[in-house]
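Hi L.,

You mentioned the student needs an example of a multi-chain input paired with its predicted structure. This one should do, with 309 residues in total across all chains.
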Amino acid sequence: MNDLNARRDDAANVAALRRGDEAAFTALVRRHQPAFLRIARVWVRDAAAAAEVVQDAWLAALEGLDGFEQRSSLRTWLYGIVVNVARAHGRAERRMIPMSALVVDETGEAGPAVEAERFHPDSHHWAGHWTDMPAPFPAPDRELERRELRAAMGTAIATLPVLQQQVIVLCDVEGLTGEEACNILGVAGTHQRVLLHRARARVRALLEQHLAEAKQL
Amino acid sequence: MTGPKPTPNPIELVCRELVELVTEYLSATLPAADRVQFEKHLLTCPPCTAYLAQVQATRTLAAELGDAATPVPSEAEVERRLASMFRRWHAK
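Structure written out for the whole complex:
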């Protein structure tokens, strides 16, 4: 869908909600519910808590419908509400750490994207080059292996620090642009890219490890 | 890897540096000069090409996680509850 069509679609949806069109609401719920649950799950302890967040988020969206000004897409606006409700909800489970502190924490000093041992040391004449070839991941037609790998990926994502988790879910799982993710989370573009870089590097490493272990079995 | 000692060139990227630039490269936020170096390196480096393919595959798998329908057992119940919430909201 191009931008103009998407904007018209959003405007039509908002108008339908305002006039009480229940079918339009249910269609929106069906379209966004899975993503809402995945986003909420980043901030709360289990699926039940995520479901609660999502229900509260829908109500918050309806209550705040007049605040939707089409500066962003309806989807991005809704995701932002889910993140806010989920974060506030997470407060009951653990201290709510300000976003700025999370950013400092998660974009500060960190290890390299790939373990240092994978490259020749500085003393070697191929210093900084790979010691061995990274193994390819299963091709798109290997559905069984990929299904397993997707499950491993879900587990890997859950081990990430919360903001990295949120950025990879928004950008790579839900397919938002970096700019949209920045708007939702209120973080700078440079920080968003550092978070995404670390998240992808960690998930890639865990998938590679998972494949190597599976091969040994 | 073995072979003749490479001529040291401070401008050229080594693999260890390239892997740190992959996200900027994929988001098209790498400065033009770095982008040229990045692509030049890939042309002659099968392991970095394989690494980039792994990162791309990771993104594809993540997108598949998003596409895969996650069946929620109580879906109908959730929809019913949300619909009644919607009616209450609109009646206000």
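You could point out the following to them. Chain B has a mean pLDDT of 86. Residues 34 and 51 of chain B are 18 Å apart (CA to CA).

Best wishes,
N.
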